[in-house]
Design goal:
This protein has helices at residues 17-40, 48-76, 88-95, 103-128, 135-159, 168-179, 236-247, 250-267, 269-296, 308-312, 318-346, 349-379, 387-403, 407-439; strands at 216-217, 304-305. The chain is mainly alpha-helical and 441 residues long. The protein folds into 2 domains: 17-179, Ferritin; 216-436, Ferritin, CATH 1.20.1260. A two-stranded parallel ribbon has the order 1-2. Helix 8 (250-267) runs antiparallel to helix 9. The longest helix is centred in the last third of the chain and has 33 residues, at 407-439. It starts with 16 loop residues before the first helix and ends with a helix.
């Protein structure tokens, strides 16, 4: 007589612990691929909104990747290995997004091929996973499904504003993904390893960052870059200068993006997570400036958008871009709290709030800079305590770019600032007049 068993609860015969860990590892590597591709292409896209969208994309996916990695370790404890296995061809396909022919292709590939494939796989996992046994995984995958769905639409819209039409590369990418049966929860059974995607182009970082044509484009966005005696200003001038400075942190967005791409394999997962946060923070600062200037009534064509700091690292070893970001974070951090207090005294709560959060971010970033410069040097077999020399060299690179400023560049900078200041005075007068009329009986 066989031993009687208690019945199994219907609907609970689902994914087991190690099955889940294997699937989540697949998801992890696909997230890394889209994080890196999103960041790497930021210097090449034109519109500030697209740079911000890709920055947020990299950060949101990095948060998902961090949660995936932690969950894999929990499920496979004490094993902490993450080696790829039979999913290599699928990961290679996602990695190939980096070699898009152009920015529009990348945006469309994200919106119509890669993100939908990830989102569908996450939805399939949520359908099969148990809401009690695997509750921690379900929480962050549910968040990621919502984020990706929203982002697909935003990326599709963004693709309409970038240069160039979509090429056959996107269709080839989708065809290859279909050959691999998409992002499946089943164990892969591929018979080949090559991505075989025609029409791509080996990726190369944009050494000259693309600029939003709606703005007043000039290498030097404010005269104090060329003339140290040019005053930063108080009152209205401080409001204006700080907003322009925030907007022009576009160079920091592009530099953080370049650094993420350059070092993510060399420095590993923890660097990837920090770099994605650094990138997203810089995009937030850029957007702070854009919003304040738009609220005050400035048209983009009146606002200077510079590039000289990014240009200063042209064709340099990527470690100098990392050092450049570190240099400016530590250089200006002490001024942020003072300016935030000044805005509070002026009654400008928006500028005060933006500067206050900026200060908190940059305190974090200064730590990133020191940690990862040391680590990068150590990985390269150099003295990790020699990092101040890299920072000093970056200061020289900026000075050298300023010294190369042409007379037309200088004139454009001065005239652009003067025109913006004149427009600011008009806005102040108009605002004062409106307030007076409102107050009159």
């Amino acid at each position: 007589m066989s031993e009687a068993l208690l019945p199994v609860e219907p609907g609970r015969q689902r994914l087991l612990r190690l099955d889940s860990a294997v699937i989540l590892k697949r998801f992890l590597y696909l997230e890394r691929a889209v994080i890196v591709a999103a960041a790497a292409w930021i210097p090449a896209v034109r519109r500030l909104e697209t740079k911000a969208l890709l920055s947020r994309s990299a950060w949101e996916d990095a948060e998902t990747a961090k949660a995936l990695r932690n969950r894999i370790f929990e499920l496979r404890y004490p094993d902490r290995t993450l080696e790829l296995g039979s999913e290599r061809p699928l990961v290679a396909l996602f990695d190939a997004a980096l070699d898009a022919p152009g920015p529009t292709d990348l945006l469309v590939a994200f919106a119509e091929v890669l993100l939908p494939a990830q989102r569908t796989a996450y939805e399939d996992y949520l359908e099969l996973s148990d809401d009690i046994a695997d509750g921690p995984t379900r929480r962050f995958l549910e968040v990621s499904v919502k984020e990706k769905a929203l982002r697909e639409r935003a990326l599709r819209d963004a693709s309409e504003h970038e240069l160039g039409a979509t090429s056959e590369w996107v269709a080839n990418l989708k065809d290859r993904l279909d050959e691999l049966l998409g992002v499946s929860l089943e164990p892969p059974s591929y018979t080949d390893t090559g991505p075989r995607i025609t029409g791509g182009r080996p990726f190369g970082l944009a050494q000259e960052a693309a600029r939003d044509p709606r703005y007043f484009l000039t290498p030097f966005y404010w005269p104090d870059a060329l003339d140290p005696d040019y005053p930063y200003g108080e009152g209205m001038l401080l409001q204006l200068r700080s907003a322009v400075s925030h907007l022009n942190e576009v160079w920091a967005v592009e530099t953080a993006a370049a650094v993420l791409h350059a070092f993510q394999r060399e420095l590993g997962w923890d660097f990837l997570f920090d770099a994605a946060r650094w990138l997203y923070d810089e995009s937030r600062h850029m957007t702070m400036g854009a919003r304040r200037l738009a609220f005050w009534g400035f048209e983009p064509g009146q606002i200077p958008l510079g590039s000289y700091i990014y240009q200063a690292c042209r064709d340099q070893d990527p470690i100098y871009r990392l050092a450049m970001l570190s240099f400016f974070e530590s250089k200006n951090i002490g001024k942020k709290k003072v300016r935030a207090a000044a805005f509070g005294g002026l009654g400008d709560r928006t500028s005060q709030r933006d500067m206050d959060f900026d200060w908190a971010d940059e305190a974090i970033h200064a730590g990133y800079g020191r940690r990862w410069l040391r680590t990068a040097l150590e990985v390269r077999g150099q003295d990790p305590e020699s990092w101040p020399g890299l920072v000093s060299r970056c200061e020289s690179l900026v000075s050298e770019r300023v010294a190369r400023a042409t007379e037309p560049e200088r004139r454009a900078c001065m005239e652009g600032a003067a025109a913006l200041l004149a427009r600011a005075e008009e806005i102040v007068l108009s605002s004062s007049g409106s307030a007076a009329r409102t107050a009159s009986p």
